[in-house]
Model the fold of this input.
Amino acid sequence: MSQSREKLMQRKAELQNRLQAIRADLGRGLVADSKEQAIQLENLEVLQEINRLAEVELAQVEKELAALDD
Done:
C-alpha cells in the first residue's frame, strides 16, 4: 500500500470514529435542567457543524481513494 493510500485510509478511519462519537453525543438528548439545556443547545449547533465538516472531508477522502483505485 502506498504511503499516500495508507494516510488516506488512516484519515478515513479517524473521520469515521469522529462521526460515530458525534452521532452518539447528538443522540443523548437533553437533560432536565434548563440552564444545562441552554448549554447543550449551544453545543448542539457546534456539533452539527463539526459533523457536517467531517462528512464533507470523509466524502473527499473516499473520492481520493477511489481515484487511486482507477
